[in-house]
Amino acid sequence: MELFNDSDTSAECGSQTELCHSAALFYPKLESKHKVPSSTVQAIVTELKELRDLNKENLESKLRTVLAKHKVEHGNISNIVEETSSAASLYVYQKDLASDYLRKKYYQKHLCYTEPQQFFFCDADGEKTDKFFHYFPILTTIENMFKDPNVREQFEKWPPETQPGILKDFFDGSIYDENEFFKNNPDALPVILFEDALEITSPIGSAKGKHKFVAVYMVLGFCSPEWRSHVDNIQLVGLCKEKDLDREQFYKPLIRDIKQMEDVGLEIFEGKMVKGTVAFMSGDDLGMHGLIGMLESFSRVEFFYRFCLIARPFFGPDFPFAARRTAKDFEVALDRLGNEPGLASYQGIKTTSPFHECKFYHVSRGTPPCLAHDLFEGVVCHDLALSLKKLVEKKWFDVAYLNQRIEHFEYSVEDRRDKPVTLKQNFTKIGGSACQVWSFIRLLPLLIRFKILDFNDEIWDLVLRLREIVLLVTAPAVKVDHLSYLEFQILNYLDLRAALFPMVPMRPKHHYMQHYPELIKEFGPLIRLWTLRFEGKHKRLKEIAQSSHNFINITKTLSEKHEYSQSYFRAGASYRPELIISREMPFNPDLYHEDVRSAVSPIAHQTLMQCDKVTFRGVEYRTGDAVILRQGRICNDLSFGVIKLVLVATDQSFFLLLEEKNVDYLPHLQTFVFESTACWKCVQVLDLIDYQPLHVYSSGGVSCVTLKHGIMLWD
Prior knowledge:
Layout: H1 6-32, H2 38-69, H3 74-88, H4 91-96, H5 100-110, E1 117-122, E2 128-135, H6 138-145, H7 149-155, E3 166-167, H8 174-178, H9 180-184, E4 189-199, E5 212-220, H10 225-228, E6 235-241, H11 247-250, H12 252-263, E7 266-269, E8 272-274, E9 276-282, H13 285-292, H14 327-339, H15 371-393, H16 399-408, H17 413-417, H18 434-447, H19 458-473, E10 478-479, H20 483-500, H21 508-514, H22 516-523, H23 532-535, H24 538-548, H25 554-573, E11 579-582, E12 585-586, H26 594-600, E13 608-611, E14 613-616, E15 619-622, E16 626-631, E17 638-649, E18 654-666, E19 671-684, E20 697-699, E21 702-705
Parallel strand pairs: 4-9
Antiparallel strand pairs: 1-2, 2-6, 3-10, 4-5, 5-6, 7-8, 11-14, 12-13, 13-17, 14-15, 16-17, 17-18, 18-19, 19-21, 20-21
Helix pairs in contact: 1-25, 2-3, 15-18, 15-19, 15-21, 19-20, 20-22, 24-25
């Protein structure tokens, strides 16, 4: 008697393979998502094996009893028990995933794993040294990324439709638009790179500087900004110790692969070949100057800016503009350096850049500024401190009062994550991260609203001018025609800053601000390009180092363990539905008054569910928050609606039931105060002029909102 035919065996093998694959994803999930050390994972595996053996014995005993009771032949009982117990006890799972070594072999063979390659640095004579770095072949990484259905889905929407005259991402900027490679290859992959230094041990103490590394990360530019911003989707490209770094050798294998992408392309899925190249490379100023071959000093050198030829003797209160650097300027400088042996640098350039070998990418137009380092940590934190100290001197308030307001202010959930830092008694700058400085200047009018003694005070005017620049520069969508308004505001601010604080010299980063309008035109909204999301990836490497408790060949440990976690995410674990609904229930319009029924009438024919919160593309919309409905003919002519209900249709489209408010704008606070209800509306989020929901604060008995970023889309 044949108990199991071929189809049964085939189905069983398929289910066992699927079971093994699911189990294989479970272990990297423990290490990647839940930060469980590999030693603990192995302990879990061992315990599961013991449970498996115990379960197998119990199952076999039970099966034999039941089968004998039903008078199954003794020989068949043994076959049935053997086949059933081996499947039920996860035999394949125990066999292939029993040890750390076997699990890693399984990940490498069956998951989307990119094997890190170790390269040794050579000395001046071309001899290998004992110093090395790890490189993740970018072509293999991209091919593995395309095994993720989320990535393929986003690529199908590439290239995107653009709106003439409106900048929403880097591909709307003139640099991408004028790039001959992307013009001739509209479906080419734009690669975004980031270089930064990180320290995986405490920066204070005996280990300071001992384990400091340079990491290079990558994302694919065709993916949406919200997808690119998630750290799970950021790929590691290269890693080496900072003290060993030789950029020419470090970037050599990457440049080789980029040139192959430019010339030949790669197969992203069966039968589909695409080309690609670097769209831009970001990082802090120190790293970018080192990358492009410029002097890495900003306080002493004559030429301190990579975007223009401003010289220190001409940098002053008159804020002169200088010619923009071009690829030709780099060629001239490198020729001078090559022909004049005693010349250490020319116009700030000291050496060549490894990226000069790329055919369609040049560093002169490919390293955008970072608002976090340049604006918030370079200008706002210092200038805002100057102004606040003056206001303290004028007796508007004291430091203790401001600190008390910072500590006890009723922040929203989002603002509490980046709550401003309290000030020291003798403060000289605003402390905290770039996001905390951003929160400080954004919420300052609400913090000291009742201590502003003179709305026309010059110092307070300076604060408001800087605050408006912050709002405009961080706008996620910009009309090109409005960049002249931003330029006007920046020049006015710098003039007033020089007049009010003539004894406090300008910093180089004040000059950087002058270039923001043209840089936005070239790169698109600068908030899309800042480096903080990449820097968030550092945390993962630090967690790996801390959980491994092993610093022998630490770059190998970091590289391999990071790639195992990325294999888990590429297997589909990084999938996030576009819409996440919370606590839904049927919507009955008859329970609401006539104004609500009228607002909902255009969609009343659909079956609707109501809820108090949804998350759409990573942004949470909940009742009580405000959204911007439209903008009039001037910057601050905005209309707002307060979310009262979220309605979701059966096709997963969702609508916001809003109470549109009459609004009074207070220019001395740059704040919008809500008054009476104007009408009720039902709108889709995609029809809003801006995606960002705003918390409605209560101040002095009135409801008000303060913008997170500016809206630069007025008619």
